[in-house]
Amino acid sequence: MDALREFERYAYAAARDANGGAGAPPSLLDWGSTQGYILSGGGKLEDVFVAGRDFAKDGSDLPHHLKAQGIQVSRQAFRAWAGEGRRSDLCKGAWFRPLFTGGWKESTSADTTVFNLQTSTIFIDIRFPVGILGRSFPHGFDACSMDDLRALSRQHTFAGYSLVTDDGSKLMPYCIRHHALDWNYHPSFPRSRPNKWYIEQHPAKDGSSFKEYGYAPDPDNGQAIYMERWARLGSEVGEGLEQSGGPCLALRRIAGLDADRDALFVVIGDHFALARDRTHPLPSFAEATKGGCANLADLAWSQGDRASLVQLLDLEGSYGRVSDGWIISHSTLPWKRGTRMFAGGDAVPVFEGGKLQAVRFLGAEWEVLECDMDAPAVARMFASNGSKL
């Protein structure tokens, strides 16, 4: 048994015991394929999600439609949508995922930790299998073994703009997400179906939870292909909804250090997240027969292609809490756990006429796509070193 499999056996036995003896999560190496199986309802999605009926034939609904045209096209589209008021509070908040089910399989917070931060416009969604969070990694890609790098491919981060339609034309409102960056993106393997789903709010209408139903129906039973239930971060430990409901700030890097690598930053209440893209162009992976970061990483691993493997993995999704002093608690770059996103005062807000125009931090300038905080609140937040706001 190789070192990675031995680690999985230990980590998942511990997870099973911590979960009261419930069945252990799937193998770390199988985590991505299991998530894909659930999302596709056991492989039905391609057949039942039909262009011209469920989404636009011209591909304009597809998650990578804008990204494939380049960062400037994506920036212009996001600015236009924000300027036109294309925003919704239906899913606004900082969420975790208690349940994800489809095709007779399910995933829960016992096997996968999710941080899904959604403002009225921008989302950052970061997902970790427990086998990643329970494993120690060396500091930096250069110190990682090839098996370490392969293990790191079993994560997921994506970020972009959520367009919600609630015009009464459907039984429930629905959302289409357009990705500015995506863990599973490769231009040779574009995603062929939209990230499109119905929204069912909790009956209490208190913003504590919602259900996400896949837009495509299962022809065998008329139900959604998959379902995800989302609950407010903090609700599992009895915190008030105000800690994860807002106010919100959404930024996108436009100039300065690494400005050619797309990046988004959001704050929702006490929660913050950063998503930063890889360098492009990506390696071609000419021998690959299917996409997805894990599949491409496995190919690079099998060929001993360390450089391509590292470039695939150099996509950051980091999460933390403002009240912890901007400390990163979870990251796809595990050596960033426990470090500060920035210290209080290192992020400089730029105001004009009392309105936030930009923020400067991490050596770059970030444009404001959304902000519902007043100027004093913004200034206090960025000056904070950990006190409750």
Characteristics of this structure?
about 400 residues; alpha+beta; eight-stranded antiparallel barrel; eight-stranded antiparallel beta sheet; about 20% helix; about 30% strand; globular; disordered N terminus
Q: What would you say this structure looks like, in words?
A:
This protein is α+β, with helices and mostly antiparallel strands and 389 residues long. It has one domain (3-383). It contains ten helices and 17 strands. It has helices at 3-18, 31-39, 45-48, 71-83, 130-133, 146-152, 242-245, 293-302, 306-313, 375-383, and strands at residues 93-102, 105-108, 112-118, 122-129, 156-165, 174-182, 195-201, 209-214, 227-232, 248-256, 263-268, 271-276, 316-321, 327-331, 348-352, 355-361, 364-371. The protein has an eight-stranded antiparallel beta barrel with strand order 1-3-4-5-6-7-8-9. Helix 6 packs antiparallel against helix 8 (293-302), helix 6 (146-152) runs parallel beside helix 9 (306-313) and helix 8 packs antiparallel against helix 9. It is globular. Residues 1-23 have low confidence and may be disordered.
